[in-house]
């Protein structure tokens, strides 16, 4: 996934405008970059494994009349970068092709690269060899490939550039009779482009004819942002899965190790006694009335925060197919979104023809922050401090406002599961459950101040928590809990959340499941398997137990079924845990041995 951009000028391109397009493209990722510049002696392709602005300082534009490039969030391959060049074709692709492995055997050309985008160039080359028209390439690629595709494809020997997309994450505009393009309309509007429009059908442009394409790669990467997942049976054997005889509520399945739990004489817990049904939707007609003022005759009319997880994907389906809105999805990538999650984002946005705007943080920095906090945690393990490992994702809430400003769209519709309330994550820190709380996330000034005070007390036991990540943690939680939110609604306030229906619906989109678990919840989250391993090993339960308990209270499943499910869902997910620890640079064996040695809360 990346931000792509370019200018095709009648004379010399405006270097300042190109730099502006490049700066905005970095919002989508800065792990690697590429630039194409046409010169008198041919096309010059530069690829680098660092940010685009640094690359542009190294490349002279001269008197070029064409330049295009990308700033990439690395997915589906680290070793190969874009632009992809083969068979006289240059490809810059934003998106993920989820079926490229199936396409290669149908082509005459062998695969040479790891990156999925190569298949676009191979499809185009086969088509041209067979005598096909260059103008037909875009439609052919979109017919063969599944997943999101927004592409700039150049055939220099024929003097043609094609722009095409199947989800609208590509825009064109004009300025001084020159053609500009970018992944988002905001970048073009900022430059004063006219006739800014979304690309779905192929846009064709003439470019200088040359037979020569020169490619240069600048390698400077120190850290591997995509860990090579090498599984080891000896490591996997270190993961424990105790099945202790823990007293559980006789109505739900919450155990005696749940913070602040009490049982009555019949064995029913206070969480059950104080539970208020959450999955009781209001009439859908109310939401239709609420969103009516936001509807637009043309163009997108709402923003959907989109993780690629089960619930946000189902929510997007409802928003498009039932509510009949025209959304832009927004994804915040903080370094713990797995490729599985990204592929599901790609599937959904392609099938529903929905634009996806990505804001990618500094992935390496975010992972360094996690590593600093995990190092501190391992020195003084505390269940109430586990949540600091996921504090970096809270800027998700901050950047909703960024997307609102950039798109001019105020309405945002959320697909948060109403049954995800856990209580125990803050409970282990000493925060008692507020049974009147009707939102998934903790908020309120007094509650947050108390929470932060208790957190500071725990942090003092391991001073390593007072590191450079602290501001990132606190500012993210400010945006989540304190910043006033407006023009937003929760889709599951108006539609019943039903797990069977959710899974059946997502199956229609070939939604991908994880190979290491039977649950469909949090499988695109790189952190979940690790923190749930901690909770289960030390306390004998995970967020699966709280989730299934809520389902019992809602009458969705029986207690017996819940017990069977959590027995399976709480099993350690070795591949996911391995990926997580490799991503942040931690030794698997020493980390797991430390967790296994923590005193249990059960006998």
From TrEMBL:
Record-linked Gene3D superfamilies: Glutamine Phosphoribosylpyrophosphate, subunit 1, domain 1, HUPs
Record carries keyword Transferase: yes
E.C. number: 2.6.1.16
CDD domains for the chain: Gn_AT_II (cd00352)
Pfam families associated with the record: GATase_6 (PF13522)
Keywords: Aminotransferase, Glutamine amidotransferase, Transferase
Residues covered by the Glutamine amidotransferase type-2 domain: 2-236
A GO MF term: glutamine-fructose-6-phosphate transaminase (isomerizing) activity
GO biological process, one term: UDP-N-acetylglucosamine metabolic process
Catalytic activity: D-fructose 6-phosphate + L-glutamine = D-glucosamine 6-phosphate + L-glutamate
Keyword Transferase set for record: yes
PROSITE patterns from the UniProt entry: GATASE_TYPE_2
PANTHER family registered for this protein in UniProt: GLUCOSAMINE--FRUCTOSE-6-PHOSPHATE AMINOTRANSFERASE, ISOMERIZING, GLUTAMINE--FRUCTOSE-6-PHOSPHATE TRANSAMINASE (ISOMERIZING)
Annotated protein name in UniProt: Glutamine--fructose-6-phosphate aminotransferase [isomerizing]
Lineage of the species this protein comes from: Bacteria, Pseudomonadati, Pseudomonadota, Alphaproteobacteria, Rhodobacterales
